[in-house]
Amino acid sequence: MSGTQTKPLLRTLAGESAARPPWWLMRQAGRYLPEYRALRAQTPDFVSFCLTPSLAAEATLQPIRRFGMDAAILFADILLVPQALGQRLSFSKDGPVLEPIRDVAGLKRLHPERIASCLEPVSKTVCLSRAGLPEQTALIGFAGAAWTVATYMVEGGASKDYRHVKGWAYRDPNGFAALIELIADATIVYLSAQIEAGAEVVQLFDSWAGVLPEAEFSCFVIEPTHRIVKALKARFPAVPIIGFPRGAGLLYQRYATETGVDAVGLDTTAPLHFGRELQRNIAVQGNLDPVTLMVGGPALERTVSAIRAALESGPFIFNLGHGILPQTPPEHVAALAELLSQPLAGR
Amino acid sequence: MSGTQTKPLLRTLAGESAARPPWWLMRQAGRYLPEYRALRAQTPDFVSFCLTPSLAAEATLQPIRRFGMDAAILFADILLVPQALGQRLSFSKDGPVLEPIRDVAGLKRLHPERIASCLEPVSKTVCLSRAGLPEQTALIGFAGAAWTVATYMVEGGASKDYRHVKGWAYRDPNGFAALIELIADATIVYLSAQIEAGAEVVQLFDSWAGVLPEAEFSCFVIEPTHRIVKALKARFPAVPIIGFPRGAGLLYQRYATETGVDAVGLDTTAPLHFGRELQRNIAVQGNLDPVTLMVGGPALERTVSAIRAALESGPFIFNLGHGILPQTPPEHVAALAELLSQPLAGR
Predict the structure, then answer these.
(1) B4-341 has which CATH code?
(2) Chain B: residue whose CA lies nearest to A328
(3) What ipTM was assigned to the predicted interfaces of this complex?
């Protein structure tokens, strides 16, 4: 652990306050960057790109070179886990396509024992990325949370109504819990490997946490997240875990209290006074609307100031409330970096 | 108003308690019903179907004949308002398609003065529907709330990221507010006509209320809803208004308190204890997951009991938390009707 406490992101996650908030952006390595698009053009197949350590590490490092965020996030995809489990994965122009698994019998097609070997290239990406980072920049590993990964595995891609995955969960809660547990256990193996390879923080993306009634939110969001957190904390007590249950709304508080995460990512709709309440017990991360960053100008300045004024007095990581939009001009990210490098006016 | 108080839905909205909750289902007239599909097949163009009073009234009445809900909801579409304003509207297999309006200059293409005449067929549908309803069944009129209608008008259809509509709202809040105001005023004209034609309750659907940060939720969800409610209450003080800000999450409480609606529709993710808190001040409606109704069986029985046990002691209208799914077997709706006709076991 020597020296890690000099990295601003890790200091904040350890509960220290700072003159300016550490920052990074969800999907900061991505299509809004011309250098990323050029790199991707070399390997049209997205899964192959993710599993080629030199390319994925280069994508991880690109935004840091340009903007100097306080953290790099591993370039990968949450669907590498289902793919490693044996589910065929491809990407069409409308998004990911998987051969859906819709009942307990389908679990037999999954091979959790393959996770470690299939995802070894990701550990290599972590190694290479860590080696390429400036001294002050932390490296964040990540995985999809079990519920969100399950939605893709059961729906076979993105969904508007989640009727297959919820249908299974409601009709056969025990059978569905077996899938959730399998994904959670695979995620523990995967994230452990990322940490061993050099990830200093991990984030769990629960992008579809906001579609469940409370009872199922307990079973399929809170419980498996707690399971993952508990297992990682047992092995790596010093590695902070950020949970991002996007859209959790009225269930955010329970997530923050019950999962054991060290920091909670707020989406764009979470009121700032609510974030401040959470900060009594936990670090918060968020929550600029990606559209505001796309728009830039006075709207960006105004909103960044409001977020900082509300949250900077507690443990706070500046981020977006959702992934950066491909239409975002890179100059707006540079403007944001400049805004965040200054102490907040009037303080 | 003579006789209205004998209708269970209106009694609940007037604050009376009941032995069993009144119920209806969002999109209860729709594709899950074979008789609806047969009726629709006669007029493939959806807008023409909505604007043919005999057909729309028949669609309105179909679910009542089969299941005897306590309310019929006018068969129409929230996008009839933009269409009446002069925006070209069609429906592809992926959803609605409109010629988008993306700045203040585009407002000149809209003709609010046409609302009353263009939407006269809807008033006729209301008349015909009301005449065809059993004595105990209330008729609900509806419109989209200004924000949700604006999302379609600016995006040109459904959206994943709302970058055009939010982009305009963030870049030029005053210009965008002019669009919101225009829609709100058109909605006042439209709903007034529905009430004059016989609608006994109106519901405002704000399906995309759950994508805005708090500041914009105030300006573009709460303010225009309040504007509509105030105008309708001035003209029709006895007509209850139900607001449904789907996905409002941590902002539900503000919506319930600040808009002036008589009842608030809860989506599927709103915890039941939160609904109970709201009931101290306002009637609540909701919030069965449409997927649970699609699944039926023990999951349906269990969940209906839990919702009733939590909410029946206050002013409560049983409904879904979102529109019924086309894949729902009609027998499951019949089973729900049967469950709701009985007093709750153990009370």
Answers:
(1) 3.20.20.210
(2) B163
(3) 0.95
